[in-house]
Design a protein that fits this description.
With about 210 residues, the protein is mostly beta strands. About 0% of the residues lie in helices and about 70% in strands. It has no helices and 13 strands. The protein has strands spanning about 1-5, 5-20, 25-35, 35-45, 60-70, 80-95, 95-110, 115-125, 135-145, 150-160, 165-175, 175-185, 190-200. It has a 13-stranded antiparallel beta sheet, with no helix packed on it. A hairpin with a 4-residue loop joins strand 9 (about 135-145) and strand 10. It is globular, with a radius of gyration of 21 Å. The N and C termini lie far apart (about 45 Å).
């Protein structure tokens, strides 16, 4: 398979055509490596019309599908091992994107420090890709952070440029032991504000 330095791409199949408008139409892009698979299709405006000048806005309309994708199969030195499946869709350009993300991750391992059984991520994003607006929803089960086990995590957040509003964060240490929090984060000012932090049914014998 193809590779470069510490990156192993595996097997690649690409069916695409380009025209004088600078648009590249991808009917099929398939990257597979040791069971990890990525598929993509769509259009990307790589160049300006009748020119080889790169279009800085990068207009696109693409969809990506992931099947049991483990980043470690492409970069063995990564400290994260996980199997990811799902779909990503994006249209617009780098300054005005409209994107949807629907991913499921299983068997997360970060070195020997963090383990997670299952994670789902659902996001709808718009605006500049560097500072998008939108909503993010994350759920996870079966976490082990070494010093603490967490049965479930639920996160709902809103993005507005450099501001992140964590509307609700719930961490279930056991069926009846719950930690809840909400906060505001300003990446521009590198500051945060805790709206509330409360617990229900947490006692020392439930902390593990």
């Amino acid at each position: 398979g193809l590779g470069f330095k510490d990156i192993t791409l595996g097997n690649i199949r690409l069916d695409a055509v380009a025209d004088t408008s600078g648009e590249v139409r991808i009917s099929q892009l398939n990257v597979s490596n040791q069971g990890s698979e990525l598929q993509a299709k769509g259009t990307v405006q790589v160049f300006r019309r009748d020119s080889f000048q790169v279009n800085p806005d990068f207009p696109l309309d693409v969809s990506l599908g992931l099947t049991d994708l483990n980043p470690q199969t492409f970069m063995k030195k990564l400290p994260v091992s996980v199997r990811i499946g799902g779909e990503l869709k994006a249209r617009g350009n780098l300054k005005a994107i409209d994107a949807g993300i629907d991913l499921q991750a299983n068997d997360l391992k970060v070195r020997d420090a963090v383990h997670g059984d299952r994670i789902t991520l659902d996001a709808d994003l718009t605006g500049d890709v560097r500072q998008p607006d939108g909503t993010v929803r994350l759920q996870g089960k079966g976490f082990d952070f070494g010093v603490q086990k967490v049965r479930e995590i639920h996160l709902n957040a809103k993005l507005a440029g450099k501001r992140i509003s964590i509307e609700s964060l719930q961490a279930f240490l056991s069926p009846k032991a719950l930690l809840e929090a909400a906060a505001q984060v300003d990446l521009g000012k590198e500051s945060y504000q805790l709206d509330y932090l409360r617990t229900k049914g947490i006692s020392l014998d439930r902390i593990d």
